[in-house]
């Protein structure tokens, strides 16, 4: 079954290939099992900093990952994206804000969610970043001033993007 990325690429005569990279072998296996046959997706178990893509990379996307990285590693990751992606990169992650922090605490307590969820949800929000943090991270990673775009998305997400060749 064709999906919008397949249709979008086909309409433009593009041959897309997507590599999903995770250090945890369970993640790659679970993702591969959930991926329909014939999709241009390859799931790889690797450390992103030593991963050697089989061809040049146009775009790097990261989703709900960066809030898990300590400061120096996050700066290194943004530098890696900047060096690796030929066209640009995109990060989708949590937005640190008191409303989701306390809202998750109350919701998970009220619904008697598993203790892991009651702990991990608020910790993830507390570990996330605000827009100003992202500007500092990008600068520390060597991204040119003004080259990233930061957008707020519902629910309490930030989308940080970098289109190369364009200082926006």
Notable features of this structure?
single chain; 168 residues; alpha/beta
Describe this structure in words.
- This protein has six helices and six strands.
- It is an alpha/beta fold and 168 residues long.
- It has a four-stranded mixed β-sheet, covered by helices on one side. Strands 1-2 form a two-stranded parallel sheet.
- Strand 1 (18-22), helix 2 (25-34) and strand 2 form a beta-alpha-beta unit.
- Helix 4 (98-110) runs antiparallel to helix 5.
Number of strands: 6
The proportion of strand residues reads: 15-25%
Instruction: Give the strand order of the largest sheet, numbering strands 1, 2, ... along the chain.
Output: 3-4-6-5
Q: Helix- and strand-based class?
A: alpha/beta
- Distance, first to last CA: 37 Å
Overall average pLDDT? 86
Overall helicity: 40-55%
* Helical segment count: 6
Element-level helix/strand string = HEHEEHEHHHEE
Largest sheet: 4 strands, mixed
Overall spatial form = globular
Q: Round the Cα radius of gyration to an integer and report it.
A: 18 Å
Q: Which stretches are poorly predicted, pLDDT < 50 over at least 5 residues?
A: none
């Amino acid at each position: 079954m064709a999906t919008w990325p397949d249709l979008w690429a086909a309409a433009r005569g593009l041959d897309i290939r997507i590599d999903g990279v995770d250090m945890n072998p369970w993640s790659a296996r679970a993702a591969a099992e959930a991926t329909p046959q014939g999709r241009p997706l390859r799931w790889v178990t690797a450390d992103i900093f030593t991963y050697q893509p089989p061809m040049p990379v146009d775009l790097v996307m990261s989703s709900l990952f960066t809030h898990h990285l300590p400061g120096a590693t996050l700066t290194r990751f943004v530098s890696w994206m900047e060096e690796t992606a030929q066209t640009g990169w995109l990060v989708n992650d949590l937005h640190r804000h008191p409303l989701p922090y306390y809202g998750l605490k109350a919701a998970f307590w009220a619904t008697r969610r598993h203790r892991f969820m009651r702990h991990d949800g608020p910790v993830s929000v507390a570990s996330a970043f605000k827009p100003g943090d992202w500007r500092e991270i990008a600068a520390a990673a060597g991204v040119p001033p003004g080259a990233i775009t930061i957008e707020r998305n519902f629910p309490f997400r930030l989308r940080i993007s970098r289109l190369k060749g364009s200082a926006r």
